[in-house]
Write a structure and sequence with these properties.
It contains two helices and eight strands, in the order αβαβββββββ. Strands 2-1-6-7-8 form a five-stranded mixed sheet, with no helix packed on it. A three-stranded antiparallel sheet has the order 3-4-5.
């Protein structure tokens, strides 16, 4: 038995379980009300899968929005896959929970941030913020919308730094 309790890992696992439960409900029932998600993930994660052109454009991290147009949302114990529309180009993405950096639902001012640990060998010290939004319009034919950052709203963010040694 270990001499310490690894609260940081336990919290990360609990937060990833919360994301899995929320996405599972959305996959089964759709997005309720005004809920939508900004999900930032590390594109360098070895199990993250995205089109080559997206990976070239966003070699470190990418923020997607799950809101009006999304398809084929499949949730597993390891991560999720979803098809999003990037300016008339539907693309499938596969995102492991371990690659997620932030999960935000601005409609209810809720957010989770996963701090990088020393064990994340796919992670660099450079924390450049590149953001890509999926289509926000109702029609899948609408052009891609690109912004530097998602809408800034005050949110409840859980940080685990205070529990790390």
């Amino acid at each position: 038995m270990s001499k310490t309790i690894d609260y940081g890992t336990l919290m990360h696992n609990a937060m990833r379980s919360l994301i899995r439960r929320v996405l599972t409900d959305v996959a089964q029932n759709g997005l309720p009300g005004a809920h939508h998600f900004f999900i930032t993930f590390d594109t360098r994660h070895p199990e993250a899968k995205l089109a080559d052109w997206l990976h070239e454009r966003y070699p470190e991290e990418m923020t997607i929005v799950i809101q009006h147009w999304f398809d084929a949302l499949v949730v597993t114990d390891e991560g999720f896959s979803v098809t999003l529309n990037f300016g008339d180009a539907p693309e499938a993405l596969q995102i492991p929970y371990d690659a997620i950096k932030t999960f935000v639902d601005p409609s209810v001012e809720f957010g989770l941030r996963f701090e990088a640990s020393e064990d994340d060998d796919f992670e660099d010290e450079d924390d450049e913020d590149e953001t890509l939004f999926s289509d926000h319009d109702e029609a899948p034919e609408a052009p891609m919308v690109e912004q530097a950052e998602p809408e800034k709203r005050q949110a409840d963010v859980v940080s685990l730094d205070q529990f790390r040694k």
